[in-house]
Amino acid sequence: MAKKFNGTIALDIRDSVPDWEPYAEPKAPEGSPNILYLVIDDTGFGAWEMFGGKIKMPNLDRIAKKGLIYTNFHTTALCSPTRSSLLNGRNATSNGMSCIEEATTGFPGNNGRIPFENAMIPAVLSERGWCTFALGKWHLLPEEEANMAASKRHWPLGRGFERYYGFLGGETDQWYPDLVYDNHLIEPPYGPDMEDTENGYHLSKDLVDKAISFIQDTTAIAPNKPWMMYFSPGANHAPHQIWPQKILDYEYNTILDYSDNPKDVSFEITSVFSEGYEKYREDVLAKMKELGIFGDEVTEPSKINPHGEGELAQDNPDHTKIEGVPEGKKWPQTDWVRPWDGLEKQEKALFVRMAEIYAAFSTYTDEQIGRLLDFLEETGQMDNTIIIAVADNGASAEGGPNGSVNENLFFNDVPDDFDKNFALLQDLGTLKTYNHYPSGWAWGFDTPFKYWKRWSGYEGGAATPFMICGPGIKESRVADTGIRKQYIHAVDLVPTLYEMCGVEPPDVVKGYTQNPIEGISFAYTFDPQYAQPEYQFAYKLSDEQKPKDEQGKPKKVRETQFYSMLGTRGVWYKGWHANTVHAPAPSDWSNFEKDIWELYCMDGDEEVTYSRR
Q1: Are 589 and 326 spatial neighbours (Cβ–Cβ below 8 Å)?
Q2: Second label for 261, Cα 20 to 30 Å away, from 3, 243, 495, 538?
Q3: E strand or H helix at 387
Q4: Are 239 and 433 in contact (CB under 8 A)?
Q5: What is the mean pLDDT of residues 157-162?
Q6: Is the preceding omega at residue 192 within 30 degrees of 0, hence cis?
């Protein structure tokens, strides 16, 4: 932000008057809040305990208890696109990020290079006196620029962050990650130890250690200077890696195996997940209703394989009779669920252990985030910190119907072999596997919705947990249930943060004239009245009921949002949602003009599901 020189320049410096203001370091207004932006990977709506799930997240629950839970939050259903929107308030297609970086196609909406005309929030805040840090997963630069010889323009430090520690790609090994520190590659500071859960290396722990040190480095010199931290651990993306001992520590089971009889898999009957993913959905929906997340408008969770893909998998190997499949095409062999009651005992045991590993991985990462929250409490920074906790898309089905000990098989459309997987049951989560649970658990962790990550037209792909706390929110939290049901989207977070920080989005950032922000602030929902049923659907409010700007005029509220991902499509408009029955890539279905469209009423006013071509 260039400022005019207001001094006096004379022929003799002794007659001149200096003006240091144009050259001074930017200073944020006194009392400006910190921002802790927690972005968790591959987590379904029905996974975490504060949303009714069975995965213990006591530290993220601290955020929920201090602030607000949003039950109608939506993403793009895939990581890179959602993350681009979370950081600059524009739709993924406007960011050139309509798919992940590994699947760019060289078109304006999908080139993998976010325009500098769509500045990220750290670039804006750093010009206004905030320190800016990024830790963990980036996944916002093209593959060909993720090397030391390439331009660093799209690395975190090129997009407004002043410090970075993490990994540039979409996933990494939790024991031996591909680490980058600022703009250079480094090795992990120490190694893993499968026998030592306290002192052995794990990426989640390392990231929190570095996060605390980044804040300490700043506050030791400028204790009142605000900071923004984007913290995105490898969890809960595959590989799901954690010490198996943590399954016992977090009480997901009481025993790991029977060492005197390796073939004895009866440990599964004492597991939290022993009854399988279909029963899990029933239990979690009941808990959701108890918590007030859903009311009577949701009577039961959606059934597995809703378009017939499961039942026809055996009778019709070519999958040509499943609803929506074009002539000559097949339903993807990895995108369906095996019914729990049809599984053999060993299959159930393997699937249970995969869920336990995932849950322990999640809870361990939550435990590490708890250390960061404790640090903020101990240093007196918590009350002036806006904390967001969000997942970038729904649960992942990339393990396929049989689960996987090597997730890379999915990306090559290769189904897993059960016998090979079962042979590694006791090694799941360790150095020997790169594992991912079966698609049935994705269906379970996305309770009560259909489908999963990549399926942007269905809630299972797009709807995720979201929580926020901080200055201006705590007071409203104690006045109501703490649950908000207004429809919001990933693009809405940045304009909300700007409003909370008192920042007017600039017209120019680092010389680039800015494109309009496409998100809409939902800060108005912090008011306790928006917990009331009559205020739940903002698009139905009269002008008198709508939130007002400083001039007393009704503010804009979200009324529509489109979805497009890997061939899937959908659109939400004032409570109605239309979507295509179209399996995402690598389905290779094409025939978009022949897609079946489904229509849903999402606000409970009408009982309707309508399908047509």
Answers
A1: yes
A2: 243
A3: strand 385-391
A4: yes
A5: 98
A6: no
